[in-house]
Design a protein that fits this description.
The complex is a heterodimer of chains A (147) and B (380). By secondary structure, chain A is mainly beta. Chain A is 0% helix and 43% strand. In chain B, helix 1 packs across helix 2 and helix 3 crosses helix 13. At the A-B interface, strand 4, strand 6, strand 7 and strand 8 of A face helix 4, helix 5 and strand 5 of B.
Chain lengths: 147, 380
């Protein structure tokens, strides 16, 4: 288990793991993208066309915070092809009021706990069928004392 | 609107059938239901077929085998609720007055289409980062343990109960009971869930013949089991995260059904619920209002959910014991309830059963509580 974060080889030529998932800066850092409702303030991830609370259609794209708290977690031992097992997965609550599922790395999978503070980083996530590098995300244990 | 009755049911044995396919399994189940109803195939006016992974024209392939080609048929894909939705659509066609006698069936040959863990559709971001269906329920189980202070051992009592029931059901995939130790020692799939906490990969089919009140009288089906409600909802997108240890989707779908059937949860004699994973059974029955929230596993420990208990849950063996051929599952639940309500369930008979409830819930998409949920109420 490595604790070092993987870095994107060529952020300029890479594409998000799924359309509209995230925005990446030239230095390889970036954010997940949600939708914020300008009328009621609700925030959604993944991005939506319409606010489910007040049905506003003019949602704003909202960069999401990187630091959050593990709501629940598991260790996956049987996965779809292309995933090396075991790996930890967790739902992470972000301050915007969204819950994001992601792998939690940089720690033994068995050591991930409910309530743990984690931090998101954008990382390579394989290639698409045209050979382009895919940009995904993973969570790492957050450095202590830096909320 | 006409009342709807279930006048015939049938199913194939559930299990691994490498020498069969979804077409001939579906034909077997449909013919069994037709024979059980004691009608001629040509008396069926329309058909609905539930399946998930069986490709185009699934239902038409079955009709071609049983002398029914030519009638209106609709294929239904609604994840693990597909079969239940086939029954719902058949009942709506009858209530609308369009048809008098309708065949609803579900069929799935999963062993030839899938191996290992199911995942949400690969378009979905959660599948893209590594979520599997067992993973979803593992995540919910871990939080349920945390919130309600129940133990891994208590959770194992669900597959133990359901496989014990399955051993009394000749149509079930599992014919041997298991112990708590066997559940705990089976290989991990998604912690804390082990192999025996997960429904198996299953081939099978099930069918039901539904009739309106006039058609049932015309066919001499007095005293047939009545389908008092068949409700469907989809999961909502919540503007803030909600507890994953309770199912508002199941609760809302059940409320619709209780209202439609004119019953309360306390009237239910037995329930077949969507126990795709051990923890799912607790989440279902608590969402249905059949057991207090957070207390189901303790109730199982006390025998309340066993055959002979206060409210037997999954006397057929459920998905964990009987098997889970996705599109057939919702129909097979109705087959079980009809047999129970007729008093034809043999060794697993729930004495005095008057009101049966079936619940299906399937699928997952990022940010949505669940994809499709159905509740059916059958009354003797």
């Amino acid at each position: 288990m490595t604790s070092a974060r993987q870095t994107l080889a060529s952020p300029s030529g890479a594409v998000p793991l799924r359309p509209g998932l995230l925005e990446v800066e030239p230095d390889g850092t970036g954010h997940l993208l949600g939708s914020r409702c300008p009328s009621c303030g609700a925030c959604f991830f993944p991005q939506r066309h319409v606010c489910s609370r007040c049905l506003t259609e003019e949602l704003e794209t909202a960069p999401l915070s990187q630091r959050g708290t593990v709501y629940t977690c598991t260790v996956i031992h049987q996965a779809a092809p292309g995933f090396e097992v075991p790996y930890a997965l967790g739902y992470v609550d972000l301050p915007e009021g969204v819950r994001v599922l992601g792998q939690i790395v940089g720690v033994e999978p068995e050591a991930v706990r409910i309530g743990m503070e984690v931090e998101l980083s954008l990382e390579p996530f394989g290639e698409d069928d045209q050979g382009r590098e895919l940009i995904g995300y993973r969570f790492h244990p957050a450095p202590e004392g830096q909320p | 609107m006409s009342d709807v009755y279930v006048i015939g049911v049938g199913m194939t044995p559930f299990g691994k059938h490498p020498e069969r396919n979804a077409t001939d399994l579906g034909a077997d189940a449909a013919l069994a239901a037709i024979h059980d109803a004691g009608i001629e195939p040509r008396q069926i006016e329309a058909a609905y077929c539930g399946h998930v992974f069986q490709g185009m024209a699934m239902g038409q392939r079955v009709l071609a085998h049983i002398g029914l080609a030519g009638i209106p048929l609709t294929n239904v894909e609604n994840v693990c609720s597909s079969g239940a939705v086939a029954i719902r659509e058949a009942s709506l066609a009858i209530r609308a007055g369009e048809h008098g006698v309708v065949l609803a069936f579900g069929t799935e040959h999963l062993t030839s289409r899938f191996r290992g863990a199911l995942t949400p559709d690969t378009d979905d971001i959660e599948a893209a980062v590594g979520l599997t269906m067992p993973g979803i329920y593992a995540l919910r189980a871990r939080r349920y343990f945390e919130d309600y202070g129940v133990s891994r051992e208590q959770l194992a009592l669900v597959p133990v109960k359901n496989k014990r029931n399955a051993a009394l059901n000749p149509f079930a995939q599992f014919q041997e009971p298991v112990t708590v130790e066997q559940v705990l020692e089976s290989r991990p799939i998604a912690e804390p869930l082990n192999l025996l906490d997960c429904s198996p990969v299953t081939d099978g089919a099930a069918a039901a013949i539904l009739a309106g009140a006039a058609a049932a009288r015309r066919l001499g089906k007095h005293g047939a089991i009545r389908l008092a409600a068949s409700t469907l909802r989809t999961g909502t997108v919540d503007p803030e995260p909600t507890p994953m240890t309770f199912e508002p989707l199941t609760e809302a779908t059940a409320q619709d059904a209780y209202e439609r059937a004119g019953i309360a949860p306390g009237d239910v004699s037995l329930a077949e619920v969507h126990d795709c994973f051990s923890i799912a059974e607790a989440l279902r029955v608590e969402g249905l209002g059949l057991f207090p929230v957070g207390e189901y596993l303790t109730a199982v420990e006390r025998g309340e959910a066993s055959i002979g208990g206060r409210l037997p849950v999954n006397p057929s063996g459920g998905l964990l014991g009987k098997g889970h051929p996705l599109g057939a599952t919702g129909v097979a639940q109705v087959v079980e309830l009809v047999r129970q309500l007729r008093g034809e369930a043999g060794e697993r008979q729930v004495e005095g059963a008057k009101v049966g409830l079936a619940h299906c819930r399937g699928g997952k998409a990022a940010g949505v509580e669940g994809a499709a949920c159905t509740v059916q109420v059958l009354v003797r």
